[in-house]
Amino acid sequence: MPCVQFLLDQFPVELIFNVFTYLTANEIIHSFYNFSRYLRQCIRSYEQYKINFKSVGKYEFDQICKILRPDQIMALTLSDDEETPGQMALFFTRFPTFEQSFTRLEYLRIRNFEEFPDLSQMERLHTLTIDIIRRPSYSFQYVQIQQYDSKFAKIFCLRTLHTLIINKESSNIGFTFKTLPIAENLQEFKMDLRSIDNLPFILKRIPNIQKLTISLNISSYDNDFTTKFDIPHSLTHLTIKVSYGHRHEIKQIIESCSMLIYLNIHIDRNQVDILQWIDSDWWQSVIDEFLPQLKIFHLRVDFNTSPNLPGITARLEKFQTPYWTNNAQRHRSFTIGVMPFDMLSNDFKQEIISNKSISINLPYNELSILPQNRISNVEILELEHATSTSECYTMSDLFEVERYINNLSTLVHLKLDVTCTITPSILSQLVNIAPHLTRLTISSFDNHLHPMMNFEYPQIRWLDMKCEYLPRKVREKFCSSFSCLEHLLNCYVYNEEDFEVLIENLKHLQNITVHIHSYYFDSSDEFDQWLKKHTDLKNFTFKLINERQMQLWIAH
């Protein structure tokens, strides 16, 4: 019988490989693996896969690990969050000789240090990103995360590493910077620092740094901070996010960076004196005195509320002078922006910072502040109701948010504060006009979920219950209303039977984070045996956060 010929089978392998560069590994396997023998051979020969396992389904994870060889992977992102619990432990169990088998790996991103591999033998690894996430003190992992110093020191010893990015939330994790080895080859470094006091120790360990990004959570412990920074002359790019800090501290850093060509300052909304940073004369004097090479300057200042105040407007208008707006001839670019709303008029040569997230306090009244122009391209909408009582406000007309938003069709995620809710008909309207609205966060069962359960919402695939209990009497109704749910987070149930009902009835569920009030598991083995006995799950992995809280990752 003659073999069927496909058009793609006639394309040269170089062209097929060029197509692969625009697709994820999951897209390549899903689209082409069962298409023809020739394309399967191309898939098995391609050696530049960039794999991102963040938010991936377990079935897709299994397929990629089964089909691709480790030496085909050039970039790898592993996740271990509540959408993919236990992924890293499972991955390193499948590839126990990780450092020897992933011979072409150049970029690696992992989460926390619990299952951190030995990277000393990896000769091509030049970029490492580690997402360090806060663990609660009652977590089983709390003791482990206090032992990060030795692993952090080993990373600084990697000879091929050029870029190190540590994304650390404001957390209960600290590092001892004084004992770190010197990283001669490190050219780019990003990290969240507890205070500016740690910066001198870091700078001594990265003598050839070119790009530095730091976040400062608190001011110096020394009220008379006078530290002189010995900053390498190789540093040309500096980004600083200031959560809590003083202007003179930032100035002391900048005045030691005479070779900077790029400076990016982001002032977080938690500052006590936010106005000190919107000072055009001060910034101009700092740039002119200390940064003769500067070509690009970005300043972003966040506000808790809309900055439509006379004092702020007057300060922003001072950034309209030719020094800030006419830099083309000097080949410079200066950008000033404020959040959540940009107050600069359209004729300013400033970059408008796009805001894809908006929080609205309902109901609208004479004290409410509307933006000059309605916001476009909003993806995350949070509804709040500021009140001194426990009274919940119910929004019954979309016009209440359309005052602020130009087009709701781009909405992806709706968040409801504990004292603000919407009617089921409003949610139905939003689902109809926003085809990408698949995420819902609720903060009160009585105010939010209970009234909605007479309707069905197959479009909602992701639900965060914010630690709200799901009553037994409505658990089946809940499963019917959200029949296509794939991700269920922070759900509290009263007993293990409620948990079992959720697993049995939510047929599309890929991951769940649940807290069981009246039942607990002493160990991971006990929970594993319970799952095998009380559910039909065959392909799953999990993480036991504590005796009553667990995260489950499921393949259907």
TrEMBL record:
Residues 5-56 form the F-box domain. PROSITE patterns: FBOX. Signal peptide: none annotated. InterPro entries: F-box_dom, LRR_dom_sf. This is F-box domain-containing protein.
